[in-house]
Amino acid sequence: MDWNMTIKELLEFNFIDIGGISLSAITLIKFTLVIVLGRIILWVVLKQILRRFFEKVDDPGRQFAIRQFVKYIIYLLTFLFALQTLGISLSVLWAGSAALLVGFGLGMQQNFNDLVSGIILLIESSVAVGDVVTVDGIVGKVKRIGLRTSEVESLDEITIVIPNSKLVVDNVVNWSYNGKYSRFHVSIGVAYDADPEEVRKILLRVADTQMELLTQPKPNVQFVGFGDSSLDFKLLFYTHNFWQIERIKSDLRFKIFAALKKAEIEIPFPQTDIWVRSAKDSNGTGTKKEETPSGN
Asked: Between these two residues, 281 and 45, which has the higher pLDDT value?
């Protein structure tokens, strides 16, 4: 290397030659500038353009999805332009790796499925961060949506990593999707000698004491049937608090039990009549009847 080279010659000097790709100081400077420019563009889009847009979209989940999608697009374009500054032809790169990509794609088919599903989730927002969902019978809150997997926190505060394809292809219950309330119920059975109208009044009084329940629509009581051992009722109620629904139902059951006990209304348990043949009497036809709970 000639140390008497001019600055221009020094910048254009190819000090690394890899596979026919020559790297010079000016090439690396261009590469760095593309990366820095990509970061600047990302900052401008997120902090200036999207910030104004988010003022009209009061939905944290959708804001997160849009922000992630914009990040991925800008990162991808920045990476592609950076490769071009190094003298790497993208067309040659794709053509030379076509056969490899076919085999790789077959082996990574499920991952690509999850990847495409992640893009669909970020665009459609059918499931967004903060939504309460039921997946495979597990109730949880969506904490993060990535390109391939999403994180759902269960009621036991356990983080579950779910492939995005399950959130797109499988049946997923999204309690938060309509942004409104949902209806839930608590079932109760009382003895046959109870007054159904009195039971209805007690259940409605209990519902009025639970702060999380909506007053509009009002709670309602349904007389759902005549059971084997009980008159069966449902207390129907509406709430926005999907995440605490199991605790709310538990509170209602405590209160219902106490209210029925105070009103001296029995909550029966299932019973079964069992006939047991006793020792033969003088006629040889003696029997004995016993009544026991079916649950024992």
From this structure: 45
